[in-house]
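so my prof wants the structure for this chain in the tokens format not the other one, which i didnt know existed until like an hour ago. anyway here's the sequence
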Amino acid sequence: MGETEKEFADASHVNDIDAASSDAILLATAADTSTYSPWSLPMFRLYGALSIAYLCGCLNGFDGSLMGAINAMTPYQNYFGVGSTGSSTGLVFAIYNIGSIPAVVLTGPVNDYLGRRAGMFTGAVIIILGTCIQAPSVNMHMFIAGRFLLGFGVSFCCVSAPCYVSEMAHPKWRGTITGLYNTCWYIGSIIASWTCYGSAFLKSNWAFRIPIWCQLVSSVIVAVGVFFLPESPRWLVARDRVDEARAILAKYHGEGRADHPIVNLQISEMFYQIQTDASDKRWWDYSALFKTRNARSRLICVMGMAFFGQWSGNSIASYYLPEMMKTAGIDDEHTQLRLNGIYPVLCWFGAVFGARMTDRIGRRPLLIYSILFSAICFAIITGTTKISVENHNKMATNATITFVYLFGIVFSFGWTPLQSMYIAETLPTETRAKGTALGNFGSNVAGTVVQYASGPAFKHLTFYFYLVFVAWDLIEAVVIYFFFVETKERTLEELEEVFSDPHPVKKSLQKRSPVRANGLLMHVTLAVSENPGMTTMNARKSRVKLDGAVAIAIHTGPSPLMRLPSDVMAGSHALGAPKTMLIAFMGNSSQPICKHRSLEHLRTRQLTSRSEIKSDRHRTASISTPRFNSSLSPSSPDNDFAKVANATIPSTHISATEDLLNSSVAAPFPSLRAQFRPIFQLESSCPPIPFQPRSIRPVFTTEEAERLLTSFQLNVNFWYPTVSKATLQILFEKMQNGFIGNSCEDCAALLVLALGAASELIKLVHSSVEPRGFESRQHQSELMAMATVCFDEAMKLLSVAYMEISTISTQCVFLAALYCSFLQRPLQTWGHLSTAAAKCRSLLAYRTGSGNPEDEECIRRIFWSCYIIESDLISELSHLPQSGVAEVESEVPLPGPLQTHFNEAETEASALYFLSCISIRRLLNRVHHLLYADDKQKTYINSRDDSLRGLIAELDHQLVLWRDTLPDFLRFEDDTRECVNEHAAFARQRYLACKSVIYRPYVEIILKQIDSAHSIETIEGAARCLTASCNHISNLRSFGQTVLIDTWICSLSMTSTMFIILVSLRTAALRTSVIQHQIADYGPHLQNLLSAWIGVMPQKSPSIQQSIRLIAEMENLIRGSL
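here's what i got, hopefully its the right format
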């Protein structure tokens, strides 16, 4: 498959992903806003089922205290002829872990092919068999054989049970439920230690046999109980038994409802997880764990936790605690066993508390400080034991006991909760199963070594053996400090960024980007997009593309929504760009590219990232022409989800200024309604743009042409970087030659000069800096005349551009649309824009351009520029026919590398700014569709506001993500402080506009239900809308892009914002939110700005003039209400 065909295949595949994002948001929102109770009947059923699995955790902990206790019993020592220390004792202890090692090979297949219940049953039966051999054993060989089987069987239980608990746990409390399983080790240990304490009063062999027989209790319950348990839903889904899985989830999670949101959500998530896990097909191949530097960094963490978790001194404190007490001078057997029983109780409390603190303190601090404290404890234990033994000092003995207990508590606090969690966190999905198995293998090997070696070590070294752990724990602390990354609050996707960095530890300690991976929504979206047959989603909803939620992105292939810049864009991963970067969510791999990377690397990385999530079927997909999926065309029926996924503004949205003034909330203000005329009516009755007949084309000196070309580059071509440096050089030659031809190049050159002159005029009139060399009003007139002449001449040639289908002809029509925006003529702008968009769609669909990659990139950029400007127009004139760019935008690559400026830094900054504008516009379109489509708006306003809360919160998160991942030169504060430059200030205006629109439903709920009591959340949401609205007005300045391109849309936006402030001022529940701002100054501020902006125009826009009048009237009404 050639390179071009691959890109088409990429487009075909990504087309199957994005549309499900809206579905994911709504599904997750429904699940999140549903009410759950841990005390409901289904939950108690769940607790009963999980209790069987918890018993498997007790089985492993039971042996930890059992052998340590019976090893201290005189009947046991006498019967088998062993001492409490020595190599034979070490072998007895170690054989349990030795038995676990060969079981590693079988636990996976049993667990995966026969199910979780089968794994627990197999383990329980083997444990029963081992107990029946060990308990009545007549010699040490039989005893060791029984322990070998016990270790072999426990390995099955320790794999199947935690999987079962995690997969059956209710998502609302999954962390707590899973964490409780990890504490069951100590529960088993507590039961074993106190059973041994009680049986020790017997003087016969039953003293040690009774505790061993007690292992049958939990293992028999497990072996019988599994037949009454439901199978793991995830395992059932993996076996295509979806109906059974749904029935189980409905019974235990969904209050008996198979269509409960939490059931749908989990089924979707399982589809995604299973699909991802299935990518690792070669069960024998472990090379992925160490073949890359990234993988080796992870493996260090995995194996470090596996070995350190056994070699830190905890094993001897568990198995040899009575011997430690004996070494400290406590010879009484019952006292040793009593202390042995107290130890796991204290450790259990430490483990439970530590589990609650892992997310507060962090992984590295817990591991490092607890292991350092462990070293201190062992050092003190060595000294106090020495004093106790040599001087028979009672206080030293008590001190030894105290620090043994302190060691157990602190180690349990810092290490027990993390031993399995940290390993899982550091492994990616595709290698997690193998990595965990390897970690378990390493843990068993380490346990075998330390348990076997500790017996003879205690015998020959006595208390000096503790110094080994002092030194080793210090070594562990150093290794952890230099090689273990911090995983606190980082998603598995974000950790990919950490481990991909040349210095993973340093990277993990950097301040985390505010980006949340939002894995759940991403998982759901992927599940929907990749499983069109799944029963939880309508099949048509699985056609289009993943967006990660309502994400935003930069991208060079068919665009899955992108998340934009932090660091300049760091957070959940994405694109790299020079010195700053943008972030895109690509399937399940959200990797932020390194901060200092090129746009070319950014493009390459995205293509690579996309390819990683493709199945073989998609890689070999056939290529179809035309490129665009007909299912996404505007004419397609019932394509609501396609429109949401494609970030389309619905034609029925009711968020425009005209809709507000015609709504019921405007009824108390008849003076406003009396002054208002429909916007389309005003603009359509406006006189046509005048053209002056001329027979001679304008002539420019080289200096003038260079100056206007530079002005065009620094302004228009910075905001909408659609003209390449190479094209500008061609156009410059046309300018120097005097426009002797009638080609599209001549037309484009004239339009560039017109827009360059318009840019100079705007800067001259509205700049806060004293102009240099162009002070006179006469020069303003000259600039306006120059722009007018160039535009007039360009219009004579525009018919040539309309007749051609090429990159340069498309540029001509688009530049004509921009100049009409400068003239504040929205309908003419829309007309040219629609033509340019149609040309773009044709060229992109059929790839019939010049074949020059630069031309193709220019067309893509014009496409996205049309998308932005058309969306702005449609947001106020909702019934204008749309060109269709929005319906297919998810299939069009976002901007890639293109040299648009003579300065490399300007090219880069322009590209990043353009991408940020695309991203915020896409998000705004989704907000309009999800909140303001006519049918949705009626539903929301007439229902409880709870139904909105989750959706608005997610949209706000996406907005915050956009802001927090902007490049440094576009950073701004969410208030009225000055920005670093005009581009950042304009970006803030977009941000504030989006925020106010996101939270406006709360204001409308209060206004339309003014006599009702409202929740605190509703009032706070309304306050956020009003604060953003006030800041939006306060921060408005004569920004170049606003004046040249967006004056018309800005005038209407400010009118609706003023109206929201006015009606809120007259509503008791909202008044306090606006009265704290300087709202009395808003009217004059806006009138002065808008009047200045239309002052240079030969013809004034009637709708802008109407906006000025309405704002003046609102100012009077506001002053009368203060």
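also thought this was worth mentioning. The chain is about 70% helix and 0% strand.
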